[in-house]
Write a structure and sequence with these properties.
Number of strands: 3
Strand content: 5-15%
Order of helices and strands: HHEEEHHHHH
Radius of gyration: 18 Å
Helix content: 40-55%
Distance between the termini: 26 Å
Mean pLDDT: 86
Strand order of the largest sheet: 1-2-3
Largest sheet: 3 strands, antiparallel
Length: 148
């Protein structure tokens, strides 16, 4: 899963901004930066991006795990990519809800809207999940494949 660089439009470039943060806000951000090995500015940018996405898509939260940060539907136990994959499998929201009755129509719509807005992010998780453990091990040599 390499990073693809594309030419940026001048309006898409990052713009430096100076912000004053209270120590009670900055301290946990610095701790998160140290723990992740990321610069403070990147941690702040990622947190702001996450917050903007959560405001745009109510019900979406972000969780961290071995696969990285993932968009998750709060209270469902499912990531957005999982809902999209299930929706493709069951073909309609109604059939999906037959098998997952606690998954509300609103949650499905939010997952679809998020996936439409960030298709590359969702397709990356779907593709990674659809690979065999051996194929994943080839791409991610540090991954430990555990048998049944």
């Amino acid at each position: 899963m390499g990073v693809r660089r594309t030419a940026q439009h001048p309006a898409d470039r990052e713009t430096p901004v100076s912000v004053r943060l209270h120590k009670s806000v900055l301290s946990p951000i610095r701790a998160k930066a140290r723990a992740s090995g990321k610069p403070v500015s990147r941690v702040i940018r990622e947190m702001l991006e996450s917050m903007l996405r959560m405001q745009r898509f109510p019900g979406i939260v972000f969780v961290e795990g071995p696969a990285g940060r993932r968009a998750h539907l709060a209270g469902t136990g499912l990531d957005v990519w999982e809902v999209i994959r299930l929706l493709r499998e069951y073909q309609t929201a109604a059939k999906l809800r037959e098998h997952f009755p606690r998954l509300s129509p609103q949650a499905i719509e939010i997952a679809k809207a998020y996936a439409d807005a960030y298709p590359e992010e969702i397709s990356t998780f779907v593709e990674l999940n659809d690979q065999s453990p051996e194929a994943l091990k080839e791409k991610l040599p540090w991954l430990e494949v555990v048998g049944p």
